[in-house]
Write a structure and sequence with these properties.
- This protein has 143 residues and is mainly alpha-helical.
- The chain has a single domain (2-106), classed as Non-ribosomal Peptide Synthetase Peptidyl Carrier Protein, Chain A (Orthogonal Bundle), CATH 1.10.1200.
- The protein has four helices and two strands; from the N terminus they run ααββαα.
- It has helices at 2-10, 14-44, 70-102, 113-130; strands at residues 56-58, 67-69.
- Strands 1-2 form a two-stranded antiparallel ribbon.
């Protein structure tokens, strides 16, 4: 099932893309709220001396505007992973199963880019072999 999740992340399909976009837009708000209300305060508790700023560090100790907030990065990563996992397991897996139950099969014998390029190379070789051989004509002014 995790292999299918990896394939979903790296493969394009119009229905899957539309589903991911619409549901993802709606679901992202929920996940953002969850992570900012629950996960981020837990991460901020490990912030060190100034826990109000969160988990991170200042590049210049006297300048608060140089604070790098690591908890925000972790928060964004959690939002992405949770959104992708929920979309996959609640929508894509059932969609794929329903395709098999209904009998919709994806074409197995699609030409790849390599096949098409090999065909083009073969046609170019044939065209080159069919041309009459030409010899350079001597220029009379070279004399």
């Amino acid at each position: 099932m995790l292999k299918g999740f990896k394939d979903f992340l790296f493969r394009g399909n119009l229905i899957e893309l539309a589903t991911a976009f619409v549901i993802g837009a709606a679901f992202t708000t929920l996940v953002n709220t969850f992570t900012s209300a629950i996960i981020e305060p837990v991460l901020n508790a490990f912030g060190g001396k100034n826990a109000s700023q969160g988990l991170g560090f200042r590049i210049i100790s006297d300048n608060p505007s140089t604070f790098i907030n690591i908890s925000t990065i972790i928060n964004a990563l959690i939002v992405f992973v949770l959104t992708a996992a929920v979309l996959y397991f609640l929508f894509i897996v059932p969609y794929e199963r329903s395709k098999h139950l209904i009998g919709i099969e994806e074409p197995e014998n699609e030409e790849t880019d390599k096949d098409i390029l090999a065909d083009i190379r073969g046609l170019l070789r044939e065209a080159r072999d069919d041309r009459p051989e030409t010899r350079p004509v001597a220029d009379p002014s070279d004399g």
